[in-house]
UniProtKB/TrEMBL annotation:
PROSITE patterns: PPR (PS51375). InterPro entries: PPR_P_subfamily, PPR_rpt, TPR-like_helical_dom_sf. It comes from the Eukaryota. This is Pentatricopeptide repeat-containing protein. PPR repeats lie at residues 173-207, 208-242, 243-277, 278-312, 313-347, 348-382, 419-453, 454-488. Belongs to the PPR family. P subfamily. Keywords: Repeat. It comes from Stephania japonica.
Length: 526
């Protein structure tokens, strides 16, 4: 691979002249040529704002091509999202569909709705537009994708109206209720989640064990494992006979809460009921021990797995590599990586990513970069998650000048497209570094690629604009949030309101407050 020099260029955004950081690669035989200059020699120091660190465990993959979706459908759905994100609206979509011969299939509409899942109001508008096209016939999957999107903005009245539409067309299925239950649980509406489960029979669906497992899984994953356990105890044997999956759901929930006492209690109960742990159960238990920093117990359980007929999976190795690496037990993490290879497992992308993360925790970025190079040579990645890990740790180590270089190279040299998670990391960093113009550059690049911003990104950008006293721009983006159906957190409006009042714009603050209040009280209409 030849030596590539970064070329700085200027550009304009919102009438402000911006320049990319002047970065050049490090032409050293000991280090990957794509690694940023001086990445080995800058002394690390602590972040100014610890609260701004991105926890990449929760990153999403909004625009990755799902399995079993044709390339043409994936490409067309991205084009439609780009049209919507660039404000040409539904006239632009009409022109695209009519002028290109694209078939507005149910599969295409479903994929667009999934891509719009973080902007529920826009997803609803697109669905209503599609309904007016004679060639479109809504399916269960289309409705379910829409329900998931509007559920994220807590439009539960609308959800039940959509379910009514589905029932009239015979399209309601168990997945529909699984989504509704999950959205109620995520919104902390626990009683409503249980009531949705109980209402299935009214729609001709008698709850089965798989639905019961979905209910306790939704509660557990919404940090309501205590309630999930209560529901489990009330319903087991009276209405459902739990299976191994029922118990593993609770094991995972208590593990996420780092409650090892309950993990062991559920495990004991599971064994008493005659269930033998499988490799998935062992993986969940090992993860629970790692999350609670009980690594000796995790390793001991790993050896127990080896002694059984269960062969440790790549996921189990990843769990141990990630856990040990995050505690700066790098040598042990690497030992498990070598052990996975000697066991006959071919390293997969998640395994390599765990090794990259382990090196990053130890601030050995040059080794992390070499792993990325190896991933490329072997054909296993890297993917956007790989770079999200590196970007997160560079920011954590206050190596922010290197972040933009790596961001550029992930696309130019590795042909790896940033996801919503990647852009969130970049926008947050530039706002925290008081480089709002660069954040705006990232924002526009993101929207040009068809990715729509999420609530956390709006919050970072608006707060950043306020800190630079660019209140007119802050108001524009606040209004855009409301237009997309994204409900801003109270703290965001409070900060913007105070900044406007301090600047003598109390009338603007009051006007925005009225719009926000109206948006909160006005449900989306079917």
């Amino acid at each position: 691979m030849g030596f590539i020099r970064l070329i700085t260029r200027s550009f304009t955004t919102k009438s402000t002249l911006l320049r990319t950081p002047n970065l050049s690669p490090l032409p050293s035989p000991q280090n990957p040529i794509w690694a940023p200059k001086n990445h080995l020699h800058r002394p690390p120091f602590q972040p100014k704002h610890h609260s701004t660190l991105i926890h990449t465990k929760s990153v999403g993959t909004q625009f990755e091509n799902p399995t079993n979706v044709s390339d043409s459908v994936s490409d067309d759905s991205e084009k439609i999202c780009k049209i919507l994100s660039n404000s040409s609206g539904f006239v632009g979509i009409d022109q695209f569909v009519d002028g290109s011969g694209v078939e507005l299939s149910s599969e295409l509409v479903e994929q667009v709705l999934k891509k719009l899942s973080n902007v529920g109001a826009l997803a609803l508008s697109f669905f209503r537009w599609a309904e007016k096209r004679p060639e479109f016939k809504p399916t269960t999957e289309c409705y379910n994708a829409l329900i998931d999107g509007v559920g994220k903005i807590k439009q539960f009245k609308l959800i039940w109206e959509l379910v009514g539409d589905m029932r009239s067309k015979g399209l309601v299925n168990r997945d529909t209720f699984g989504l509704i239950i999950r959205r109620y649980a995520r919104a902390k509406n626990i009683n409503e989640a249980v009531e949705a489960f109980e209402s299935m029979e009214r729609f001709g669906l008698k709850p089965e064990l798989q639905d019961f497992n979905r209910l306790i899984d939704a509660l557990s994953k919404s940090k309501q494992v205590k309630k999930a356990n209560q529901v489990f105890d009330e319903m087991k044997k009276k209405r459902f006979v739990p299976d191994l999956k029922s118990y593993t759901i609770l094991l995972e929930g208590w593990g996420q809460e780092q409650n090892i006492v309950m993990v062991k209690e559920i495990y004991r109960e599971m064994r008493d009921e005659g269930f033998e742990p499988d490799v998935v159960t062992y993986g969940i238990m090992i993860n629970a021990f790692c999350k609670s920093k009980k690594f000796d117990e995790a390793i001991a359980l790993f050896h127990e797995v080896e002694a059984t007929k269960c062969k440790p999976t790549p996921h189990i190795y990843c769990t141990l590599i990630n856990g040990l690496g995050s505690e700066n037990r790098l040598s042990e993490a690497l030992e498990f990586f070598e052990r996975s290879k000697s066991s006959g497992l071919v390293p997969e992308v998640p395994t390599y990513n765990a090794v990259v993360g382990s090196y990053c925790w130890a601030k050995r970025f040059e080794d992390a970069y070499r792993v990325v190079d190896k991933m490329k040579k072997t054909g296993f990645g890297p993917n956007s998650r790989t770079f999200d890990i590196i970007l997160h740790h560079l920011i954590r180590a206050r190596r922010t000048k290197e972040v933009y270089s790596i961001f550029q190279k992930m696309r130019s040299e590795f042909k790896c497209e940033p996801t919503i998670s990647t852009y969130t990391i970049m926008v947050n960093m530039f706002c925290n570094e008081e480089q709002v113009d660069m954040a705006l550059k990232m924002w526009e690049e993101m929207k040009a690629s068809g990715i729509l911003p999420i609530m956390h990104m709006f919050s970072s950008l608006i707060n950043g604009l306020c800190s630079e006293n660019r209140l007119d721009d802050a108001c524009v983006y606040f209004q855009e949030m409301l237009t997309l159906g994204i409900r801003p957190p109270a703290s965001l409006y409070s900060n913007l309101k105070q900044a406007l009042i301090d600047a003598g714009k109390k009338d603007v603050a009051l006007s925005l407050g009225l719009e926000l209040d109206k948006a909160r009280k006005t449900p989306l209409a079917v």
